[in-house]
UniProtKB/TrEMBL annotation:
One protein family per Pfam: AMP-binding_C
Entry keyword annotation includes Ligase: yes
Protein's name in the database: Acyl-CoA synthetase (AMP-forming)/AMP-acid ligase II
Source organism superkingdom: Bacteria
Residue ranges of domain AMP-binding enzyme C-terminal in the record: 290-362
Gene3D superfamilies: 3.30.300.30, N-terminal domain of ligase-like
Family: Belongs to the ATP-dependent AMP-binding enzyme family.
Any single GO BP term: fatty acid metabolic process
Keyword Lyase annotated: no
Length: 373
């Protein structure tokens, strides 16, 4: 595929780890990679490479029509075969168990780039900050799209005009990025605290899954809307998606596992994982809703909410919180009582130094449950 690079000449392409490449230099590095690793190689592996080399490897795979592995080297999935049409060999985040192997065609990403460009407004003059490892697909997608657009991929927040980040990471980045124009957030729902910190910056939020890529997107505060060509259906409250951007072997209608509502004109409201719906005495409490409220309270750095068995109510709410040092747990509990319903109010509070997170930065709810077991 010859369309992996959207820039040329002396335009900056990569500025990461103290290494810089113009688009001419990047183009030569890609050709050198192909020559060095064999033009007929069946698969490349970028998993353990530094980011600049990993991007060169991925672009070489796209140009050569070769499959490329981009996995977490510390948690590789069991992969028994490589489909003939595969371009990217990636994996789920493993937040609730062992990562599952995924394979996607080049078209399943590149065909979505024009729509993603229209939504985000990313252009060739941008410097696009990637805030996590490339084996987290939201960061790999952001970097590959930036190169396709002719922008510069960077790890320097002081020069960044666009950032890809989960909301928790965005909070930290904003103060270090004075030139930031647009924040592209994904991985978990945008909370009011992150939105407030990013005041004055255009926020683009998209919803997707490793198996599906992009499903819906919005410019905040507009509602999420399905991308053109993507269909959705709600079955027993859970979201099913049919998409041209799905991984190889995905069912025609893929069950995402999220509680959701579908409105007119493709408007989508996602309420969190179906497994995070907590039944408190017949009242459904959605863990993500409680987490978003807790994250706005003074003293809370981050929060995870899970259900705990109860002999009478069925389940009750347990909150696991990182405190930021500005308030104690009793103060946080008192503030929570003022803003949460009786059913949503946590009966058990657990203070933790650092919540377990996936590579992209979102809380790994499955590992939180394991800590409480």
């Amino acid at each position: 595929m010859s369309s992996e690079l959207g820039g040329a000449g002396d335009q900056p392409a990569i500025d990461v780890d103290g290494r810089t490449y113009t688009y001419d230099q990047l183009d030569r590095a890609i050709e050198q990679w192909i020559d060095a690793h064999g033009p007929r190689a069946s698969v490349y592996d970028a998993s353990e490479l530094p980011v600049p080399d990993a991007l060169i490897c991925v672009c070489a795979a796209a140009r050569q029509g070769t499959a490329v592995i981009v996995e977490n080297p510390e948690a590789r999935p069991d992969r028994t075969e490589i489909p003939p049409s595969a371009f990217l060999l990636v994996a789920t985040s493993g937040s609730t168990g062992r990562p599952r192997p995924l394979a996607r065609t080049a078209a399943s990403w590149f065909d979505s780039f024009p729509a993603f460009t229209a939504i985000t407004g990313i252009h060739a003059a941008d410097r696009v900050l990637i805030t996590g490892p490339l084996h987290a697909t939201m960061h790999l997608f952001g970097a590959v799209h930036a190169l396709w657009r002719g922008a510069c991929v960077t790890d320097d927040p002081s020069e960044a005009t666009v950032v890809h980040a989960v909301p928790a990471v965005l909070r930290d980045v904003v103060g270090k990025a004075p030139k930031l124009r647009t924040a592209v957030v994904a991985g978990t729902a945008l909370d009011d605290g992150a939105r407030a910190v990013a005041d004055g910056i255009e926020i683009v939020e998209y919803y997707g899954a490793a198996e599906l890529s992009l499903v819906a997107a919005r410019r905040v505060p507009e509602p999420l809307r399905l991308l053109d060509g993507v269909d959705a259906d709600i079955r027993a409250g859970l979201l099913y998606v049919r998409s041209p951007y799905s991984v190889i072997g995905a069912p025609d209608w893929f069950g995402v596992g999220d509680l959701a509502e579908l409105g007119e004109n493709g408007e989508l409201t996602v309420r969190g994982r179906g497994e995070s719906a907590i039944n408190v005495g017949g009242t459904t409490v959605v863990a993500e809703d409680v987490e978003r409220i807790l994250a706005t309270l003074v003293g809370v750095g981050a929060a995870a909410v899970v259900g705990s068995p109860h002999s009478v109510l069925g389940e009750t709410v347990t909150a696991v919180v990182e405190l930021d040092g500005t308030a104690g747990i009793e103060d946080v509990r008192s503030r929570a009582r003022r803003v949460l319903t009786k059913e949503a109010m946590p009966r058990r509070w657990v203070r933790i130094e650092s919540l377990p997170r996936t590579a992209s930065g979102k809380v790994a709810r499955g590992r939180v449950r394991d800590l409480l077991a």
